[in-house]
Specification:
Layout lengths: L12 H28 L1 H4 L7 H14 L4 H14 L2 H19 L5 H4 L2 H29 L7 H27 L3 H8 L1 H5 L1 H13 L5 H11 L6 H8 L1 H10 L1 H21 L4 H29 L1 H15 L2 H4 L6 H27 L7 H17 L2 H11 L5 H31 L13
Helix pairs in contact: 1-3, 1-5, 1-7, 1-8, 1-11, 1-15, 3-21, 4-5, 4-7, 4-20, 5-7, 5-11, 7-8, 7-20, 8-16, 8-19, 14-20, 14-22, 15-16, 15-19, 15-20, 15-21, 15-22, 16-17, 16-19, 17-19, 17-22, 21-22
């Protein structure tokens, strides 16, 4: 099988990693802009003023959740295209879809202007976002991992994951900037600016991705297809790798659903239940996103040295320990303690989010890899991601506004994730032993 490091079609691993980072940063910027707006402004803009506050909050988060309904569909559709045609084409399409939908959200009329049509239009655009992001992650991860040098797949795979940190940093930073104009200006027009600004970012991302080339792996996949060796990727994944998909879903649960609980729900809890300053919390989330951006590559590089699964398990254990304290400090009103806990939680989540991409990617054969990792990731987001903030609000309301039910749910999810991460490693090792030709990419260190 062709060695990626010597093939004439191979491109610079850093160029591939930067292309993955640029695209996912823009995609996640748009996604987190919606999540932030859903937590602090959509409840007042797109729903009637006489609706109870808790119901408006749940409805606002529900618009955020519906985007996750079509993410598995996006993963299957674009996964099929990516496995059969190429990674690059799907990444251009998904970026364009996300950018157009986000820009349109910034132009939507409010409930006071057009009534119930306003939240309906918001939901439609959110569904478009869901399809786009459903096909984005898998392709970005594979562009980085499949072009990585031998023994460095965890590190280079983390660049696609860094897009989440960059997107969150840009998003919360933009909302913090708009908050400086005052509450009235922010709720009337300021919240629209982050969505409208995404148009500039999308143009930049399209320029970067237009110059990208598919990895040598795709040449081999196309050759297998011509020989008649390839069937429908989704059918093969469901028939042969359903256990890997299922274990992948739960190994990713905290990195997806838990992430929204410690960002979007925490922001809602802090402002509405603890009456803390929006600006203070947004600034804290911005600092936490910056920390994640800095530490993720180093933790992923460490994963190439000591074993990526060890880093992920350590991160999940850290989430278990910090799940309750992150909510407890909200009651103190201490800015220093709140920021410290935000930074600590984001650090341990960086340990599990960065390395997991390469672990999951190498659990599937190259010709179904895009479909396999997309199904795992997007099914996880459907179950745990989109409904994470909604479930957290609901659980908290059942306990009279207490924080411990969401915290307990986060602890359980993380504990299950530890077991599933170890199982995922076992499945990957079995695949290597049974089919030594499949790990085209550099294997994750398993020491």
């Amino acid at each position: 099988m062709t060695d990626r490091t010597t093939s004439s079609t191979a491109q610079s691993p850093y160029r591939s990693a930067f292309a993955a980072l640029a695209g996912t940063s823009i995609e996640w910027y748009d996604f987190y802009a919606f999540a932030t707006a859903a937590a602090i402004v959509f409840n007042d803009v797109f729903f009637p003023a006489d609706m109870p506050t808790s119901l408006k909050t749940i409805s606002s988060f529900a618009t955020f959740a519906v985007g996750f309904l079509l993410r598995p569909l996006g993963g299957i559709v674009f996964g099929h295209i990516g496995d059969r045609v190429g990674r690059k084409k799907t990444l251009v399409i998904t970026l364009l879809m996300m950018g157009i939908a986000s820009f349109a959200i910034g132009l939507l009329p409010t409930y006071d202007q057009v009534g119930v049509a306003s939240p309906i239009l918001l939901i439609v655009l959110r569904l478009v976002q869901g399809i786009a992001i459903g096909g984005e992650w898998g392709g970005a991860v594979l562009i980085a991992v499949e072009n990585a040098p031998k023994g460095r797949s965890t590190f280079f795979g983390s660049f696609a994951q860094l897009g989440s940190s960059v997107g969150a940093l840009l998003s919360t930073g933009m909302f913090s900037l708009m908050n400086l104009f005052g509450s009235d200006a922010f709720h009337s027009w300021g919240w629209r600016v982050p969505f409208l600004a995404s148009a500039v970012l999308v143009v930049i991302g399209l320029v970067v991705r237009a110059k990208l080339e598919d990895s040598p792996v795709m040449g081999e996949v196309r050759a297998e297809k011509k020989r008649g060796a390839a069937g429908l990727p989704v059918v093969e994944v469901l028939r042969k790798d359903w256990r890997t998909v299922l274990v992948g879903v739960f190994s990713l649960a905290t990195a997806t659903g838990g992430y929204y609980v410690v960002t979007s729900y925490l922001l809602s809890y802090g402002t509405q239940d603890r009456h803390l300053s929006e600006s203070m919390l947004l600034n804290g989330l911005t600092l936490a996103a910056f920390l994640e951006l800095v530490v993720t590559p180093f933790l992923s590089l460490l994963g190439d040295r000591v074993g990526a699964h060890r880093i992920v398990v350590g991160g999940l254990a850290g989430v278990v320990v910090l799940a309750v304290p992150q909510f407890m400090v909200m009651g103190t009103g201490s800015v220093a303690l709140i920021y410290l806990m935000m930074l600590a939680m984001r650090f341990v989540m960086s340990a599990l989010y960065g390395p997991i991409a390469a672990i999951l990617a190498e659990g599937f054969a190259p010709h179904v890899r895009y479909t396999g990792i997309s199904m795992s990731y997007q099914l996880c987001n459907l179950v745990f991601g989109g409904f994470g903030p909604v479930a957290a609000v609901w659980l908290s309301s059942l306990a009279g506004g207490a924080y411990w039910p969401p915290a307990a749910a986060l602890m359980v999810t993380s504990a299950v994730g530890i077991w599933c991460t170890l199982r995922l490693r076992t499945y990957r090792l079995r695949r290597v032993a049974a089919e030594p030709r499949l790990p085209v990419t550099a294997p994750v260190t398993v020491a």
